Amino acid sequence: MKPMRESSPQICPVPIDQQPVNEYEALKSAWLYSWGQVDLLSYGKNLTRLALLISFIVSPIASASFSVEKQPVQCGFLIVLGICLLLSLFVLRLMLGWRYVGDRLGAETVTYEESGWYDGQVWRKPLEVQTRDQLILRYQVNPVLQRWQNTLKLLGATMAIDILIWTIFRFLH
Fold it and tell me: Where do transmembrane segments lie in this chain (predicted)?
């Protein structure tokens, strides 16, 4: 009988669902988290649909704050601000999920629990596993993280411009 090499995946003590590569697979197949991997047009459509859904929540709040008949511009600026804010929180949550998996893929060790929170263990990844995980991180996870970060920057800029124009409009009227 030939002895198993220490780097053999068969002797990996980390439970299947806590292995970074399997966490990545689960994340990329999850409905909302997969949005970061679709083509740019589909990504934009998904965020636009979500923004429209959010507008149904934000619009009544904005119209209760400002009269649509008397202050339509202020009401519109508040709606845009609310949509961008809630959309940013949504994108931030998705980005943090991807970052968590990316951090686990990029680490040299894997922290895991065998049966509960009280028995945490650490497993050092063999070189082959580290190399595979680094490739997944570089070519699969990092582009998604970059897309989420760019989206947050765009939403932040939109909110800043919205607030600036709203402030200027307020002083002019």
Answer: 50-68, 75-96, 154-172
What's the farthest any 2 CA atoms get from each other in the chain? Answer: 87
Q: Please give the backbone phi and psi of residue 124, each rounded to the nearest 5 degrees, phi first.
A: -80, 125
Cα 93 to Cα 14: distance, rounded to the nearest angstrom: 26
Q: How many CB atoms lie within 10 A of CB 86?
A: 18
| Residue 107 buriedness (CB in 10 A; 0-12 / 13-18 / 19+) | middle
Q: What is the pLDDT of residues 89-144, one digit of tens each?
A: 999 999 999 999 999 999 999 999 887 767 789 999 999 999 999 999 999 999 99
Q: Are 86 and 160 in contact (CB under 8 A)?
A: no
Q: Which residues pair with 23 in a beta bridge?
A: none
Task: Map 80-111 to HEC letters.
Answer: HHHHHHHHHHHHHHHHHHHHHHHHHHHCCEEE
Sign of the dihedral defined by the CA atoms of residues 62, 65, 68, 73, in that order: negative
Q: What predicted TM-score, i.e. pTM, was given to this entire model?
A: 0.86
Length of the chain: 173
